[in-house]
Design brief:
By secondary structure, the chain is mostly helical. The protein has eight helices and no strands. The structure holds zinc ion.
């Protein structure tokens, strides 16, 4: 592992590496903006009334926990990266891929919870892993588990995998 790090880092600019880590972190948290959106309504005056109307739209695990959300997120991150000045030395693809994969890993982690996720939004049906009738072993609430165990582990693994395979990934994408 240390060898791979030592062997693969020289081809990366530090700015790219830092942005990959930041992008992965952001990607792993971004799907829960629909949850945060719902909470905002309880902190403003008349929020409860507005929140009741907005709740069906902003309900936890809505569009951001779907493939549509993943696609939108990827487009937004790409747009941000494309807008950055090139002299910052941030390579777009490693950041974009690792951030999108982190986002997808959040969806995957949420799929292991009892609630499941509406992965085929706007179809409102929630899907989970494992599917019924084996859903009894799903996690009761995903938050502590995904935040403290799954995300850090998955992100570190993904970053290492992407770094190790970066030459191959680049060849496939940029051919
Ligand atoms: Zn979530």
């Amino acid at each position: 592992m240390t060898y791979y790090f030592a062997a693969t880092t020289p081809q990366y600019q530090p700015a790219t590496f830092g942005t990959v880590i930041a992008g992965s972190y952001l990607g792993s948290l971004a799907p829960d903006i629909d949850d945060a959106g719902a909470d905002i309504w309880h902190t403003v005056p008349l929020g409860h009334t507005v929140g009741k109307i907005a709740d069906p739209i902003l309900k936890h695990r809505n569009i951001s926990h779907s493939l549509v959300g993943l696609a939108l997120y990827t487009i937004i991150v790409y747009a941000i990266l494309a807008a950055l000045p090139s002299y910052w030395g941030i390579a777009t693809w490693p950041v974009l891929i690792s951030s999108a994969v982190a986002y997808a890993s959040h969806l995957l982690a949420d799929a292991f919870t009892v609630e499941g996720i509406p992965v085929l939004w706007p179809w409102k049906r929630n899907f989970g892993l494992p599917p019924k009738p084996f859903d009894g072993i799903r996690i009761e609430t995903g938050h502590w588990f995904e935040n403290l165990v799954i995300f850090p582990a998955v992100n570190i693994i993904l970053i290492v995998i992407i770094m190790i395979n970066w030459d191959n990934i680049k060849r496939v994408l940029l051919k």
